[in-house]
Amino acid sequence: MNINKNYKDSLFTRLFSNKKEIISLYNAIKNTNYSIDDTDINIITLEDVLFMDRNNDLCFTINDKLVVLIEHQSSINQNMPLRFLLYIAREYEKILDNKNIYKTKLVSIPKPEFIVLYNGEAKYPKFNKLYLSDAFCNKDNLSLELVVDVININYDEHNHIIEKSITLNDYSYFIYLVRKYIKDYKNSIPKNMLLEHCIKIAIKECIEKNVLKNFLKQNGSEVINMLYTEFNLEDAKLIWKQEAFEEGIKEGIKEGIKEGIKEGMLLKQIEMLKRFNFDEVKIIEEIKKDYNLTEEEIRKYL
User: Fold this and answer.
1) 167 and 21 in contact (C-beta within 8 Å)?
2) Residue 47: which of 76, 102, 3, 8 has the closest Cα?
3) Is the pTM of this model over 0.85?
4) How many helices (H) and strands (E) does the chain have?
5) Residue spans per domain, the chain
6) Dihedrals phi, psi of 128, to nearest 5 degrees
């Protein structure tokens, strides 16, 4: 099959893009019992978000709450609370009439909740919390806090939360199978064929076991495209992070250690994305997320 290396959707958001699945997911995470008949759900499109790594994130209102939820497959970023803070301020600006904040009457806003579902390969606790205050230079008499709940949804962690949502449990198992087959076949299948092969046999096994059966039967080729993009982007990021620092040091000898490391990492990231066959549009999109550069400045390095 022809692989679309810049597929814009993700398997996670596709699975949880409807009211029924969002309510089931939220009930599992928060141990609530919202029902589809009497719960107001509004899915908010995330655009130009500072912390986005891929389009695998959800933002929605559920009754009087505003929930920002991320499915995260790479290492947990300790700056996530700060990024959530910057994002939520933008989101409130969008949903409020700015003129209202100048009135004397109190403006009601939905209560924010921040959730990260960790699905990476590195070891991580089943449950954790990240605090904005950990970033403060001085923690005396705190007047601002933001808390992020981090939940490990890896299938082999046997976290009871994922078992409360059939779709989340099935999704976790499917990702587990893909990774398992990558390890099993990495020495017997050519590298350029490995990922697609493993996704296909994971799909076949899940259908046979009635795991995401209907979804995978109806959307098999799209699932291959989505995971191909996601997994290759993860591999590219892992490689450039491992190699970039050393090359940055070499550049730093010429033009100053700090700036040399930064530019070396930028060049290595672009090199890795090109190696994994991402086009210029996708490369620019990814670089913008990690560096304070304009499109024009990025193009100088392409």
Assistant:
1) yes
2) 8
3) no
4) 10, 6
5) 11-165
6) -155, 160
One-letter identity of residue 52:
M
Q: Residue 162: beta bridge partners?
A: none
CA dist 291 and 262 (Å) reads 9
DSSP 107-151: PP-PEEEEEEEE--SS---SEEEEEGGGG-S--TT-----EEEEE
Which pLDDT belongs to residue 273? 76
Q: Do residues 126 and 159 lie in contact, with contact meaning Cβ atoms separated by under 8 Å?
A: yes
Q: In angstroms, how far is the first alpha carbon of the chain from the final one?
A: 29
Give the strands of the sheet with 57-62, arranged side by side: 41-44, 57-62, 65-72, 111-118, 147-152, 127-131
Which DSSP helix (H) or strand (E) runs through 152?
Answer: strand 147-152
Closest to 289 measured CA to CA, from 103, 46, 30: 46
Q: Kindly tell me the sign of the dihedral angle through the C-alpha atoms of 133, 134, 138, 139.
A: positive
- Which tens digit of pLDDT belongs to each residue from 260-300? 456 667 777 787 677 667 778 888 887 887 777 888 888 88
